[in-house]
Amino acid sequence: MSKAWDAIIIGGGAAGLFCAGVAGQLGKKVLVLDHADILCEKIRISGGGRCNFTNLHSSPANFLSLNPHFVKSALARYPSKEFIKLVQTYRIAYHEKHQGQLFCDDSAKQIIEMLLAECAKGHVDIRHPVEVESISNEAGSWHVKTHSGIERSRSLVMATGGLPVPAIGATAFSLDIAKQFGLKVIDPRPALVPLSFTSGEFDNLIELSGLSLPVRIAAGSKGNRYGACRFNEDLLLTHKGLSGPAVLQASSYWAEGEEIHVDWLGAVEANGQFSCDELFNHEDNRLKLTENILASVMPLRLAKAFAEQKNLLGKKWAEVSKKDRQSLKELITNWSVKPAGTLGWKKAEVMLGGVDTKELDGQTMMTRNHPGLYFIGECVDITGHLGGHNFQWAWASGFACAQSI
Ligand SMILES: Cc1cc2nc3c(=O)[nH]c(=O)nc-3n(C[C@H](O)[C@H](O)[C@H](O)COP(=O)(O)OP(=O)(O)OC[C@H]3O[C@@H](n4cnc5c(N)ncnc54)[C@H](O)[C@@H]3O)c2cc1C
């Protein structure tokens, strides 16, 4: 049997490596075990290869959980500005893209190299690929069995992430270990995921695949697991359905069988660029064609599709009855469709659900009933909005855990 560690961390991704680096630099003897050939694949592919590593405005309001208060302590102790300082220390150039989202100028690989350098500073032992065969607790010591023997530790940190993108090694291992120790796990569900449709209403829009525009989107309801949402973001029409930031955000709140609601003019109106009432009532528009009026605030292809749906294509506005104008306005400002489903784990960016936060201490991420057993990162029932919040949770939960180790 080998020497005893202060902490064994299973999963060398965002949360695991960050936690390891901090704990190692606090003088702890840390071992990281990961089953992947290449570490941090999710960081590498994140943000289109540029890693949206945090968000300037990350706050508890950006997270979904059965207990939305749970993130408060960890986020307060390790806010986004702390991670930004670290990124600056490594002279990684970055920029703000949209609503506080920070991306590397060059490559997500720089964040991976930074995490590995932090681990090296803390003399962390990182081993991969290693299959963990079993985990047990014997007389207060955590025993991790791998093909090369048993490693013992005072603390065990589960950081194997969520189920999205199984092709790059995602597993339910942390959830399985949680269940092994009798912890409650909230049903996992794909989130930040494109939605698919079978609805007839969608048929004439499928031809518009590739079109992207800002919309206001609403999904969910008060009674849902995570409540309701409303976002002003870009929506992308694809040949499989709807995608883009607006739909990814809405997907986290959407429950099967429910409709989502799109106000195609809402985001532009929210910017104060025009008033929807004015557009529909302005006398100057009387001699214009319906589709051309709509095209003043949306792409012509989409304007034509809406006009066609209401049999108003090619009609002058003066010839359109009040009732038909109202019906067109209702279609455009409250377009409601029932998604058939999501595109599943292959296309999801994150997981909803995971280890129930009631089982964990929010200050340390340690389980309440198993001293020394921690869960951090995506395997916990905390899911961020799109925009760097999920990595911020990985850093913050990893930091809280490292302080406790
Ligand atoms: C395509 C894509 C793009 C994304 N872009 C962003 C973004 O720009 N900004 C953002 O904030 N979030 C983004 N995310 C989400 C973000 O990647 C995750 O929330 C984050 O990586 C979670 O960190 P983690 O450490 O919990 O899990 P991970 O980073 O997934 O790490 C888990 C580690 O555990 C290992 N592991 C899994 N199972 C086992 C096992 N059985 N034994 C041993 N090791 C195991 C894996 O190999 C992996 O190294 C994106 C996700 C995807 C899929």
Task: Describe, in plain words, how this protein is organized in 3D.
It comes from Polynucleobacter duraquae. Residues 6-403 form the RsdA/BaiN/AoA(So)-like Rossmann fold-like domain. With 405 residues, the chain is an alpha+beta fold. The chain has two domains: 4-190 and 349-404, FAD/NAD(P)-binding domain, CATH 3.50.50; 195-342, Translation factors (Elongation Factor Tu (Ef-tu), domain 3, Beta Barrel), CATH 2.40.30. 30% of the residues lie in helices and 25% in strands. It has helices at residues 14-25, 41-45, 71-77, 80-89, 109-121, 173-180, 203-206, 244-251, 266-270, 276-281, 290-295, 300-309, 322-333, 389-404; strands at 4-10, 30-33, 52-55, 63-64, 94-96, 101-104, 125-127, 132-138, 141-146, 149-158, 185-191, 195-196, 212-220, 228-237, 241-243, 260-263, 335-337, 341-342, 350-355, 373-375, 383-384. Helix 1 (14-25) packs parallel to helix 5 (109-121). The radius of gyration is 24 Å and the shape is elongated. It binds flavin-adenine dinucleotide.
SSE arrangement:
Elements: E1 4-10, H1 14-25, E2 30-33, H2 41-45, E3 52-55, E4 63-64, H3 71-77, H4 80-89, E5 94-96, E6 101-104, H5 109-121, E7 125-127, E8 132-138, E9 141-146, E10 149-158, H6 173-180, E11 185-191, E12 195-196, H7 203-206, E13 212-220, E14 228-237, E15 241-243, H8 244-251, E16 260-263, H9 266-270, H10 276-281, H11 290-295, H12 300-309, H13 322-333, E17 335-337, E18 341-342, E19 350-355, E20 373-375, E21 383-384, H14 389-404
Parallel strand pairs: 1-2, 1-10, 2-7, 10-20
Antiparallel strand pairs: 3-6, 4-21, 5-6, 8-9, 9-10, 11-19, 12-15, 12-18, 13-14, 13-16, 14-15, 16-17
Helix pairs in contact: 1-5, 1-14, 3-14
The structure holds flavin-adenine dinucleotide (FAD).
Flavin-adenine dinucleotide binds next to α1, α2 and α14.
